[in-house]
Specification:
The chain is an alpha/beta fold. It is built from nine helices and six strands. The chain folds into two domains: 29 residues; 209 residues, Alpha/Beta hydrolase fold, catalytic domain (Rossmann fold, 3-Layer(aba) Sandwich), CATH 3.40.50. A six-stranded parallel sheet has the order 2-1-3-4-5-6, with helices on both faces. The radius of gyration is 22 Å and the shape is globular.
Length: 243
C-alpha cells in the first residue's frame, strides 16, 4: 500500500497548479466595484452619510468624498475631486467606479467627464442636479450675500448659455436623474418655472443622453434621504434600470 505522503507528494504540484489557474481565472471574472458619493453646494459629506450607510448595507463599498464647495470655481473643484477619486481608486484597487451625486456634485462629474474623463466610470445617479442651471442663480446671483454664502461656483450655475451646466453637452455615460417635486421654500419656488424641489425645476434637472429619469416627492436638501430615491439609486447601480 502506498504511503499517504507519497500520494500527496506526487500530486501536490498538480493541485497547486490547478489552484493558481482557478485563482487567476476568478480574479479576472470578479471586478471590484466602488461607489463614490459627491455632495452638493454649501454641504459636506455628512449630508450623504445616510445614503452611504444604505448602500453599504446592500453590499456596496462606498467612499463619501468631501470637497470645499464654496471656495473654488467648478473647474477647480472638479480637478480636486478627480484627484481624490483617482487616489482612492488606486488605494482600494478598484476596477469600476459608480457615482451618486447631489445637486452640484452632478455638475462636477459632468465637468470631469468633459475635460479629463474617468475611463473606468460605470453608472451614475444624480439627485436634484441643476443640469440646465437654476433660475435661483439668475435672480439672486448679483447679490453680494449670495456669493458670500455660496461661493464662486454658485454663480456658474445659472440657466444662461454661458453658464457651466449648459456648456458641458450631453452625457455619454449611464445616468439616472432623480428630480424632486416638493419644496420647503415657497419664496425660492416662485422664482422657478414649473414644478420644482425648491432649488431646481424638473425640466432643468434633465440632461441630454440620460438613460433614466424619475420624479419623487421630496425637497432638494433631503432627496438623498428619501426612501424611494434610495430604492431607485440601488436598483440603477445594480442593474442599470429603474425598480
Amino acid at each position: 500500500m502506498r504511503h499517504p505522503c507519497a500520494f500527496w507528494s506526487k500530486h501536490l504540484k498538480n493541485l497547486l497548479f490547478l489552484f493558481c489557474i482557478f485563482s487567476l481565472g476568478y480574479s479576472k471574472v470578479k471586478k471590484d466595484e466602488h461607489v463614490f458619493l459627491l455632495h452638493g453646494l454649501a454641504r459636506t459629506s455628512s449630508s450623504m452619510s445616510g445614503m452611504e450607510k444604505f448602500l453599504q448595507d446592500h453590499n456596496f463599498s462606498v467612499t463619501n468624498l468631501d470637497y470645499p464647495s464654496r471656495k473654488f470655481l467648478i473647474s477647480e473643484l472638479a480637478e480636486q475631486v478627480r484627484k481624490k477619486i483617482v487616489m482612492n481608486s488606486k488605494a482600494q484597487n478598484v476596477d469600476k467606479i459608480h457615482f451618486v451625486t447631489h445637486s452640484m456634485g452632478g455638475i462636477l462629474l459632468r465637468q470631469i467627464q468633459k475635460t479629463k474623463p474617468l475611463s473606468n466610470l460605470g453608472r451614475t445617479v444624480m439627485l436634484g442636479p441643476p443640469n440646465k442651471g437654476s433660475e435661483i442663480v439668475d435672480k439672486l446671483g448679483k447679490l453680494k450675500i449670495f456669493k458670500m454664502l455660496n461661493g464662486p461656483a454658485s454663480l456658474q450655475l445659472g440657466t444662461k448659455p454661458h453658464n457651466t451646466p449648459n456648456k458641458l453637452g450631453p452625457v455619454n455615460f449611464e445616468v439616472c436623474v432623480i428630480a424632486g417635486t416638493q419644496s420647503i421654500n415657497p419664496i425660492l419656488s416662485q422664482m422657478i418655472l414649473g414644478t420644482d424641489d425648491g432649488k431646481v425645476s424638473i425640466a432643468r434637472a434633465k440632461v441630454d443622453g440620460m438613460k433614466e429619469f424619475i420624479q419623487v416627492k421630496a425637497p432638494h436638501p433631503l432627496l438623498m434621504n428619501n426612501q424611494t430615491a434610495r430604492d431607485v439609486t440601488l436598483s440603477f447601480l445594480q442593474t442599470g434600470k429603474l425598480p
